[in-house]
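Can't attach files on this board, so I'm pasting raw text. These are the components:
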Amino acid sequence: MFRYLIPLALFLALVIFLAVGLTRDPKELQSALINKPAPAFSLPQLKAPGKTISNEDLRGKVWLLNVWASWCIACRDEHPWLIKYAQSGVVPIYGLNYKDRSEDAIAWLGELGDPYTVSAVDLDGRVGIDYGVYGAPETYVIDQAGMIRLKHVGPITPDVWSQKILPLVQELNRQGTLK
Amino acid sequence: MTRLLPILLICLFAPVVVAQVQEEELPSDDPVIEQRLANLSKELRCLQCQNQTLADSPAGLAADLRREIRVQMKAGKSDQEIIAFLTQRYGDFILYRPRVTFTTYLLWFGPFVLLLGGLYVLFHYIRQRRDLIPEKPLSADEHRRAEQLLASLPEKETT
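---
Top answer:
Structure tokens for the assembled complex are below.
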């Protein structure tokens, strides 16, 4: 009896491996930067090129870094949601305008609205390399101590927001007020 | 549909290709660096188009990473240091040849385990089969028939 169960067990193991493997999104990679300090940057601001914005300016609060560009089609999908979440005031969203022409970017924000407290201009994508960006849009949750706590690749949808980002931000804010 | 297809393709690619800022990729004037880059980038994965190496990929990110590698080589960084720089940012996935770590044991050694398992099953089966075919001694009747057959053979001529 037992010897007939072996092929069945092997088959079930194969089914489980395939079920897990084939439903995974191969584009979604585990970031190497989780729980590491957010790479330092100091970049010109999109709407005020004379001024710079640095990650050090944001120390002490929880913030989101959203990598976007006017050429990025999926960024358009998440944009209305970003505006909604920015208006909710839960967490400030900072933009990293990735390899984009500034005039295109400003026109894009003019057309669709601007959810970003400030957008930093990463013209040559050098800061993107430091953050391990491989496809816009990407969103990072960075805590009070400047550590990356979450990276989400792809557009932010209501599911992603309510299940991944919002609970984490609330938890981080709660921990922050306890200290 | 056939008339629509080119238009659809243009709609699909035009905004992406036209609007992304991409600095022109200038090869280094140092042939040693170019050779090192060629060797190293064959070992690295382009994360945008995941089944291409950094050497082959036309993606913007791949060009940026090649530029970054050139800059670092020019600054005197070793290949190991550059690989460390990239894996810190993009993880081990950027390496085409996965490292031997605890999580990749199955990947590296799984095939050999399967091979050994297969050999074990094969030898086991062969041995079992040999035991299944016992040598049966001839019965008295068969013995007589065999004698007759041998006797009916034409006798060899003796010289």
